[in-house]
Predict the structure.
Amino acid sequence: MEHIGYQKLLSLLASDPHVASRAYQDLRRRLIQLFVWRGAAIPQDLADETLSRVARRLGEGEEIRSDDPFRYCCGFAFRVFHEKIREARRERELRESGEFLIPHSEAGGHDDSRLGCLDDCLRHLREKSRKLILRYYHGDGRAKIDQRQQLADELDIAQAALRNRAQRVRAKLVICVEGCLENQQRSASAVKAS
Amino acid sequence: MTDSSPEGTGFRRILSGAATEGERLAFEERILADPDFFQSMEREEADLLDAWARDELPEAESHHLEALFTASIEGRAKLTVARGLQEDRAHSFQIRPHRTRRHWLPIAACLVLVVATGWLGLTVWNQQWELAALRAALPPTVALDVREERASVDEAQRIKIPAKASSLLLKIDLAGLPPHDRYRVRILDAATVPVYEVAYLPAPTAEEPLVLSVSVSAEVLVDGRSSVVLEGLGEGEWVELGERRIWVVRGDF
């Protein structure tokens, strides 16, 4: 049933399968981010469960009441997203503040291993991207502003375009650091288990 | 405070917990329905985290933000990047933001030219070596044991496709499954990527060999850093492996 539902979900997102596949990934990314902003501990799993539930319901013949399937789909995902949040609250995963908020023991500080992850990820970037992101964040105050203007001039692009480029590189870095932290966590768990 | 200060924006109110539930719901609904709005909020998030990394936020707000983001690996990665970039890692990578011209520059340029020629040769050799090593270490092959309509692979079986891979061999074990006109194989990586559509018809007989086609259209994140778009049409063949019959799809994607 869920299998049919996924097909239905994809066809609602776009008629072209390739475009639909991208739209699905984008929707999933937005859901993950919403769960992060709600303070969920495992946002990816919650996003997948949300989409899986949407697919299941579509497979069970949920009636589509909209002229705009994409919006309908997003609205549906939104409703299921809130179901998940309510469930989590019931399961006492939430603290009094109304967020998931399961503070990590390492809090917001940073340590060498985390920065090691960042350096590794910076090393894996293409040189052009690495230089761009490092120069973009180099310096303070006026020096930083001048640095960015110089960078934009060198690349012959507007400040806004430079900002978008830096944002894209930063997003790649975040994904890479995420993988690195995940590996660290897995290794630490394995060591504990042994 | 920041490049385009998020202070007082709706986004900051949401993340600091100051927004009403109604505001929050409207915000979340718009995030899902409006990709452009989502992108602009991601930029605001970056600004806010930069402000956090520079200790420019009020203490209570800073703590609230830390609690939100440290709850998940995704959030911790964002904090790490924000903090790390503020610490100016340019020194670690010998990036010199402001170039200064010197009279010895032409001589240095000649030297660089000589070194670069050698380096180029070394790089080509290195790339070839790297490609060979990748192929050896990560053969782009995966066997999926499909025992039910919705099957998944465990962590160890997850496909890892090197960015430089030019082909993918996808083996799908359909033993014991009822014929079906459509099975969906999901590839899991940094993102959950649909969709491989697999047509599975009754097994072929010796007299009438069956040729199946698998159309593939998927984007796969490789190591979370780059992406490969796989598109194509793969044809395959039945292969006997012990008591098992495996449909092997070959494709140069």
